[in-house]
Specification:
Layout lengths: L1 H29 L4 H5 L11 H10 L11 H32 L5 H10 L9 H10 L6 H5 L6 H11 L4 H9 L4 H12 L1 H16 L3 H6 L8 H8 L9 H21 L1 H9 L4
Helix pairs in contact: 1-14, 3-14, 4-8, 4-11, 11-15, 13-14
Amino acid sequence: MLHERSWHAHLALVLGVAVFAFPIYMALNGSTWDAGTIGGGRMPLYPGAEAAANYGQAWFSGEGARAKGAPVSVMMINSFLMAVIITLGKVAISIISAYAVVFFAFPLRMFFFWMIFITLMLPVEVRIIPTYAVAANLGLIDSFAGLTVPLIASATATLLFRQFFLTIPDELVEASKIDGAGPLRFFWDTVLPLSRTNIAALCVILFIYGWNQYLWPLLITTSPEMETIVIGITKLVSTADAHTDWNLIMATTVLAMLPPVAVVILMQRWFVRGLIESEK
């Protein structure tokens, strides 16, 4: 009976993986065929012979028979810098603000924390118009500062760090005071090392968040040189399916998936530990 249940469970897992993996396989497979084969609905389920041409065209040119866009190499650099800056900025600001709320006693401490927490109900889409107006007045249009600075603040990361800091034993704080450590040394020598796994888990989540941004880069960028990879993919798709360079779109999509996948694979161990580890 146990073996039978295990067999059913594994079958369900395999089917679930197949459902999620099949579209990815189709994108990978489509990137190896020409636009005519894909547009005519005759694309086989096995790879074609146009992979080198499609990926080279997407990486170095970005322009197909009908589509005209920035090279994927430029867009991926823009997306990577945007994702890294957003990730590091969110982690730095959140961990410092959470540290102040937990370990410092100052007037209206909880009021400011709840003000930060309330911003969870105000996503970028809700405050997009005033945020754009402020960015425009500061001259941040079509710049990396405009792409990243308005998205750096994170109430979610602040809340997660605060909840983690509350679990740090008071004995560690008292021992640090006895040893003569000030607030900065306690933060650097005690709090930061204990937060490594949490930081790693948040870095994975925030990097993917920054990489997948669509609405804000669409508004804040005006030149092809500042386009991100997500914006580039949407601009490659025309209104008529028969007149779309699907081979170029598929190749660009596959290349766009590589950095997030690499981050998840490289940080998987730390990511899992950051989600489940509770020992201090």
